[in-house]
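Final report, Chapter 2: Outcomes

The project's central promise was a pipeline that accepts a single protein chain and returns its three-dimensional structure in a standardized token representation, suitable for archiving and comparison. That pipeline is now operational. To close this chapter, we reproduce one record exactly as it appears in the project archive, with the input sequence first and the structure output second.
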Amino acid sequence: DVKVQLGANQSSSQLQGIGIPTSYPCKVCGGKTKELEEGKGIYKKLGIISFRHIINTLSSHSARQTYAMKHFLIGLLLVGVAYSQCNVHYDVKIITHTSKWAESNGVFTMSAIGTNGREEVLGQLDNRDKAVAASGGTDHYHFENAPSVGQIECIRIKTDKSEDLWLINYLIIDSSMSKPVKIVNIDQTAVSVDSKEGTKSLRMCGKIYSEGKTFTYNLQLRTLPDGMKSHPGTKNQVSINIIGEKDSATGFMGLANNASNFVNKKNGGHLDFFDLESTHMVARINCIELEISGDDMLCLSDVLVAGPKSKVRFYNTDLKCMSTDPKEGGKRLRLCKAGESTYEVKTTTSTAKYSGSNFPYLSLEIKGDKGVAKVPFLDNYGVNDYEPGATDTFTLRDLPAVGSIKCIKIRYTSEDFLKMTMVSVRHVNAVKPVVFKPTGGIPALSKDPKEGKTLIELCR
């Protein structure tokens, strides 16, 4: 039904009183152009200049004129609605993923889907003879005289014959009948007829966003020490996607990698800082996805992300590396928030000669009656921890609640001997720490079996 829109001084009763319905069954874009042309003649003869004037003057004309005018008015309404529904223009901006294989010369079509579930084909995504989009590039598409779907909520990109996959990072779409919507390819699914590479029909949804408004994300990425992993730094490009609740995400953003980033260091690893801008706000950060562009491996210890409304530290607890070489690691690494608990860990190094370590590659596991918390690298960056006779404090945030602490497990992968006399663990809400100081002392730690052990467990 096409609903009549009345002005401030008009009422449906006025229309119904002269036999004109306030709704009328029709097919949008149903070819009413001829009726409009005929209607213009009647419109001109009667000297009608407004909808209100039509109602006010109908009574002054003959029954024949009134009858003609009634049908003209219905046709005018149908044509006006049909014209507005079919003469919609759409603007689409698509950002292709930065991976070198993400671009495509294939043939793809796009559909828009409204909040009411209505889906309409807009047309082919075609920018003449160039690739659909170069890797990391931005392409703009414009569709004229397309059907309206109302407020846009989702899109669909399809291909029936392209084996040349296309991997979209995110896109922004708006129309003359819709507010702009940003849609992120959260699952990083490619479009291709080859089911091994992607899907023939990719449906993605997004949310309305404000053009031009940006949000800042501050990042700290710590590369593992060279020794805990062999050559953990990289010269390849690295991208990050920050993911929140209800499928909110920034999309992959590149981290500018130069000679001073992700370098190999033996003592303490390396810490890099990045400030990124995004047009999409992720309020409550839950996960991150990292991606590497080549086979020069990168191994991270942890990542700190501070967004507009939340800050989370992500731990690479399994010490997984990234590389396009499957023998070294996966191309992508997904890390999610482990919990919301904070623990304070203290260690005391023995005063005996050679007890301290310059390369303390130490991982910690806290076991409780309700769970386990893991930290891949127990070290304060830029501080000489584990000096002879020193007590060091480590504050560990965003870990799962383990309940009542029962045991700790320490893994050591350095050949530099370390001897500790005490380790204590305290949940920040607890009054007293749980102290691990066995009668026989804490076993020495070393990768050299003649000097110590690589794995010890201490229990209460």
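Archive annotation: The two ends are 75 Å apart (CA to CA).
This record, like all others produced under the grant, will remain available to the consortium after the project formally closes.
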